[in-house]
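Co-fold these.
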Amino acid sequence: MSLSLDVRHRLGTFEIDVRFESAGGVCALFGPSGAGKTTLVNMIAGLINPQQGRIVVSGQVMFDSNDGTNLPPPARAVGYVFQDARLFPHLSVQQNLKYGRWFSKRRGTAEFDKTVDILGLGALLRRKPVTLSGGEKQRVAIGRALLSNPRLLLMDEPLAALDQARKDDILNTIEKMRDAFKIPIVYVSHSVAETDRLATQIVHIESGRVVDIRSNSNP
Amino acid sequence: MMQIVTLSDAEWSAIFLSLKVALWAMVGSLPFGIVCALVLARGQFRGKAILHALVHLPLVLPPVVTGYVLLYSFGKKSAIGQFLYDYLNFSFSFRWTGAALACAVMGFPLMVRAISLSISAVDRKLEAAASTLGASPIWVILTITLPLALPGILAGMVLSFAKAMGEFGATITFVSNIPGETQTLPTLIYTYTQVPEGDASVWRLTLISVFISMAALLVSEFLAARATGRLST
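Predicted complex below.
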């Protein structure tokens, strides 16, 4: 898999002009709040369209302003773990987990039991999202995104709303998941500790621009 | 005393007819109400204000005017009325179906308003999340938006039903007041108020109207509480 991103987008006085490529593994978008990281992942997911540029995932063009290509989000097959989990409140944990699978059967079926096992969701399946703790919600959100058979997984500060103990718990889960599923991940964070621990490549973004790209041999 | 508790045939017939008309008005307008509410709550297009005004028109027009417009557009002599009669052997004129249509139109603004408010309250972030999981817009509506708007949909249905139970002006203008066919509870009450010995009947039917309306409100409260509970626990 590869991700190639080359976008320009102006929001009022703020301008995003970002270009980088990632060969796979965990690519961290690192930078302070307001640097434009979330806007970038929203562009990869298709929730925001850049004014100019080109986005390619695994050789498939998602967006190209030159020829008007613009796949809608459901066609992109990009899993997205939001900062605020965004579980569907009217569905049980199990129904949440299986939601994306239903639409992605033709791309093969991610292994439900294995995913539930690795994310430690077995005891939660029949519960409703409102009864879950923040950490549990985030684990379900990760499982839900994984089970939609994505080509690429986007994670936007998945630990932001959690306390330290929960953060360690989820970090462990993400590491396990990274190693077990071999799925490429774009991981947004403003925390050096997180990116150093998880990422194979770190793209440092400030004020809408790439200031540094380095690979990380730690993980 | 027996006269107070025993209902005449005309009274029973009006009660059942009212229930039938109100149920059909509610069920028949529901699909249109949901689509209209979705368009008003989520659509962005030129002329949205005009659609909004059109939908709400029956709320502010004198019911007699609405009834006359229906008579003019769906009556036997109108193009639509003739088409329905010639090709589908179906008629609204002076039939209970016409009463249902009149009630549906009169209740439509209330239904659409309740549903579109609850659709507006659905978190669009959840819809975006569903779309990243592979759901096309129509599936997002069916699996996320409408289930989450269920309390509002139920409220809209009850409002439409209640409006239909009480509708008078548009019904009597469009399909008249024919016993057994278009004579609903309100039009029968009106008929009894016009005759000297009608007092007892008026009281009986008034109490029944109050009872049915109360029952509808209680059922809707119950359903809405259950639906809301389902969303939050």
